[in-house]
Amino acid sequence: MIACFGKHGRSILLYSELQKLSPAFKDIGVAGPDRYAVYLSALLSIRLNYRQSYTDMQFSPLLAMNMEKNGCALLARHPDASAVLYWGAMSFPMDLKRCTLPYYIITDGPCDPEDKTYPLEWKPRRWGAEYFQRQRRIYSGAEHVFTLSGWAREKLISVHNLRPERVTRVGWGPMHPECSPRFEMQRSGYFLSVGNEWRRKGMDHVAAAGNLLNRKYPDATTVIVGRPRGLKVPTMPGVLQVPHALPGIVTQALMANARCLIIGSRFDASPHVTFEALQTGTPVIGTDVAGIPEGIQEPHGGHIVPVGDVEALVTAMEKVWTADIRAQRESAYEVYRQSDGWRGCARRIAEVMGVEIKGDETSDNPLDQPK
What we know:
- This protein is of the alpha/beta class.
- Helices cover 39% and strands 15% of the residues.
- The chain has two domains: 2-169 and 341-368, Rossmann fold (3-Layer(aba) Sandwich); 190-339, Rossmann fold (3-Layer(aba) Sandwich), CATH 3.40.50.
- The protein has helices at residues 12-21, 35-44, 50-58, 61-76, 128-141, 150-159, 203-216, 248-257, 273-278, 292-296, 310-322, 325-339, 341-353, and strands at residues 2-6, 25-30, 83-87, 103-107, 144-147, 167-169, 190-194, 221-225, 239-242, 260-263, 284-287, 302-305.
- Helix 5 links the parallel strand 4 (103-107) and strand 5.
- The protein is globular, with a radius of gyration of 21 Å.
- The chain starts with a strand and ends in an 18-residue tail after the last helix.
């Protein structure tokens, strides 16, 4: 039995698909930190900058040790486990001094202290050196590392010196249940951008572009949704702000009915909203950073623009606004269909791990080709 778990609930949908492929996989839960460990880590990480304190707390050695302990407790309940599949690389999935089980890692991106494009949320300072070495030990000890994006794969190879044959890109999927695509849309509609931390999500650029497009096309409205967290976007014509996190079902409905989803991020490793939009046939405009272009596959799923380039974003939005809607949405959905969402990710993981899967078929998806 392959024990599957992680540091958070993001792994649930992927592990569900793995279990459908083979009884060898079993989701055994989440090994998150205890409350007392969070409190102590916060005390040890206090800085004058609240956001930096929060980031440092998330990566503290104390928190990592607590998660390791909880991971060991999970595994102890499953003595029949022959291997471990773990989503995360902040802590060891088990006590490697006592446990000799082979383990595999899933990650959306490694620590890179030299990359200035990384946001504060990815850059611990107080524990930076220790965290980098901790990650290096985790990656080097793994049987294999699965990355969501090709960008993350190249990072692991270049920053953590992993051999290319030990790292496989598997793609990623939506965090909400699959929805039926909508191909018939009215000409009028709205552009949508979703996310918290508006500065990192580039909501200032999205709003500026939405305002400029509205001057040329008065029916074109841009809606930005999520918790701003430190960035105030001024009120402007053609832009509707919803500065709150909305329930997932509401966000998914907004996405399905939008003319286009905009990901204006200054940094985003592998945004799940890409496939949440594409699965309904909604095209995506995204910036040329990290793994964003890989999900969109320009020109099929939408358009890629340089990060921070408002004029280029307006041009891309105009292309969407004036294009044939049905053809555009069919093309966007085809990108999702080819990726096969979490099912495709699960299949690629199972094949690399050598697990026999039910109903195996040859895939025409370029992601499934050997690396």
